[in-house]
């Protein structure tokens, strides 16, 4: 075997190791359960006893309605994003009586609109070194620990991802090499895989679309590759909500807190008036302590407690775009360490497509933020400098904006300090607010919020926090080879346009998609596809099956078409037009599951189309490329 062939095999082995070949601890479910101890094991046994089937929506709402001043919950969480659902899971597994309400859907806001990274923060490490900032260094240490927890607790929804940093100047090689080696060192036993240098030739073998030269005419000298985690953010959030429900929490999406109740004597918050946004009906929920985890909208909730409350959120917009798969290799990301205006842009493979972003700009707070054309163009321009292919606006399959809730402590004297770390504050009326932070540290943020709630409400938990090593729904039974069971033992029964049901093979793409979306629950989805004739794909070119709609309606609190196309599957984020094409069938199946009438079905069509209009794909954007007229 020649030296060049040996080098190529070694190179491919390194890439495979980063994406699963050498990552048994990140994928093997037995390693998760092996780390569970004592109370965490008893919590999991409770979930297993329920057959991993969540209580239905009606029983969840009934449990919330059953509270009173004399029979309150221990804790009511407002907000169903990552932190809110994480807090509900944390509190429920401590043995507390918990409720959670979310006015839209789980992960409807910021938590579904991330860069999809589970990371320690290479940029924060750079700041820690050059600014001698020990606080930034602690953030990196902590985030790397939490990265390991997420990868272990939800292996079906997360995976290690190598990311390449191109070097077009010789000095960049030792500079980035030292930075990534320090990142490895800081990660310690939580390191996913050791960072390494690739020559220019090796780099182009792994990343064929990488440019051989930069705009200044400098040739590629090589690349540095480091490793972080990647996730399916909204499905991870839904898994948190469902696991919290299995642990005993009463979680209710599409339920909005419109008023906070206070004790007439003490002035302390003791509950909330809740409106079911699906029915319009209102009811009261009482709790010993209320936790505000409303993300960018936390100031809105704080003003329900104290109308004079000072704002603590500095909203920042982060825009991402999705491009075809050929923009990046299947198993390698790209980071542009410094754009022309000094920002950082990622380009990462994600669910068979390429996601690129992000921006960072001031924005108003809204439920449906929209990306501006100049932000989309900024990302396209940034990545075009590093690719050898033509970067076209017409290739944008989807584009979305998310609002980061950058937080400042309103009680601090230095109100100018805005942090990407999280803040927990309690107002004079006992309302606990948790905000800021990032997806990777949601678990520890939730732990801090619950600790504060226990102190404020003088609660008596049965045990301490157990979520550090607590597997989420779907982790039980998951294995990388699990998809082979689906391909060998199940058939996709598909209904033709004429109404006839015909068998179809359970192809590898569909099987892998189910396993990496539902983990150990994938067989339940496959069984629906086989037994109920729902094995057809919802959109050409995507492995999402009709059976998933029925499964999510029954077992994942999927209550609307947008819930499904945006957050149970990711069609809206991957390909806006494909989501639109799937919409009629999605609504048809949900209507059968939820017994919708014609008026509700018509409303669902209108709401879903309005939602998709905020995702600026090449077909609905305001731009002029010579073929499309500016709207």
TrEMBL record:
Residues 74-443 form the FAD dependent oxidoreductase domain. It is an enzyme of class 1 (oxidoreductase). One of its GO terms (molecular function) is glycerol-3-phosphate dehydrogenase (quinone) activity. Its main location: mitochondrion. Residues 465-600 form the Alpha-glycerophosphate oxidase C-terminal domain. Pathway: Polyol metabolism; glycerol degradation via glycerol kinase pathway; glycerone phosphate from sn-glycerol 3-phosphate (anaerobic route): step 1/1. It catalyses: a quinone + sn-glycerol 3-phosphate = dihydroxyacetone phosphate + a quinol. GO terms for cellular component: mitochondrion. One of its GO terms (biological process) is glycerol-3-phosphate metabolic process. Its cofactor is FAD. This is Glycerol-3-phosphate dehydrogenase.
